[in-house]
Backbone:
């Protein structure tokens, strides 16, 4: 059965990943102005631009902390539940945070997509809970 702490961790991962995506996009503004003579120098200059830019670095570190939480949560959570839930909710939080920051929302299609995501996540969670609950009930009655 999915515990409350596992659900909280999966939700936290989705918030950290999805909530930081629009900030990462904003943090990279201006990188196209970095120009160097060869590919290696260009790569190093772009790395320097990103990692000395706190508007990029802070969301990046938050995003990576979400990856750490996800990694540790996978140890106790069913993979077939964790991956679809986190990935779909990440998309939802990216859309919502983008809207908060003034990005284009996408109109009715985006709203329909969010509703379908929420329905899919609900089905995944309910399926996982009912499968786990059913297995436990069978094992108890067999003994």
Residues:
């Amino acid at each position: 059965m999915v515990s409350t702490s596992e659900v909280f961790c999966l939700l936290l991962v989705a918030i950290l990943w999805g909530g930081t995506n629009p900030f990462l996009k904003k943090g990279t503004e201006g990188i196209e102005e970095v120009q160097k003579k060869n590919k290696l120098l260009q790569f190093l200059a772009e790395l320097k631009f990103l990692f000395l830019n706190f508007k990029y670095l802070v969301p990046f570190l938050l995003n990576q902390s979400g990856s750490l939480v996800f990694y540790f949560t996978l140890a106790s959570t069913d993979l077939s539940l964790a991956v679809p839930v986190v990935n779909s909710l990440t998309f939802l939080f990216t859309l919502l945070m983008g809207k908060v920051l003034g990005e284009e929302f996408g109109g009715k299609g985006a709203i329909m997509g969010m509703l379908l995501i929420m329905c899919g996540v609900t089905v995944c969670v309910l399926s996982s809970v009912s499968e786990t609950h059913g297995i436990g009930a069978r094992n108890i009655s067999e003994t």
Notes: The chain has one domain: 4-142. The first helix runs from residue 4 to 27.
